[in-house]
Amino acid sequence: MVQILDKTFEPFLEQEDIQNIVSQMAKKMDILKNENPLFIIVLKGSFLFASDLLKALSFDAEITFMQIKSYQGTQSSGEIKDIMGVPMNLKDRTIVIIEDIVDTGNTLEYLYNRLSKEKPKKIHIASLLLKTDVYSKEIPIEFVGKEIPNHFVVGYGLDYDELGRTLPQIYKLKSS
Description:
The protein is of the alpha/beta class. It has a single domain (13-71, 78-166), classed as Rossmann fold (3-Layer(aba) Sandwich), CATH 3.40.50. Helices cover 20% and strands 39% of the residues. The chain has three helices and ten strands. It has helices at residues 15-28, 47-56, 106-116; strands at residues 2-4, 7-13, 38-43, 62-72, 75-84, 94-102, 122-131, 143-148, 153-154, 170-173. The strands form two sheets. Strands 5-4-3-6-7-8 form a six-stranded mixed beta sheet, sandwiched between helices. Strands 1-2-10-9 form a four-stranded antiparallel beta sheet. β3 (38-43), α2 (47-56) and β4 (62-72) form a beta-alpha-beta unit. The longest helix has 14 residues, at 15-28. The chain is globular.
């Protein structure tokens, strides 16, 4: 168990499980090696996952960062704020959006539409976690580490009010 502010979280995914998931995702991404993809890491939550994933790839890759915000506490605010956009030309590039978690898909839809305006050759999505019960968009997510129930989770980059990101494993909110 771990306490973050007013919430108690219980273990959900151990470090070893996360590393196995990341390794398997990297192997699946071998199909992209001849496309010279640009990996767009969505901050802040994806930074630990992206670091491990990119190190596990069998090919070198170019990276850049975007930062958006959509959560307030344990709930999606419904409003997406673009804090740091992409600082480079994406025209005719194969890009891979790296997300830590996809739930309703609102943030992903925003990112996809925002990046599509830049006329990339192809947009791939990679997400460590996917909440299939609540994902409601038509955007295909080609690289999914693990499908999970609709739990609020923290650790390994995921946060609760900016805390819990540095936990080496993933915890879920404990039911009362």
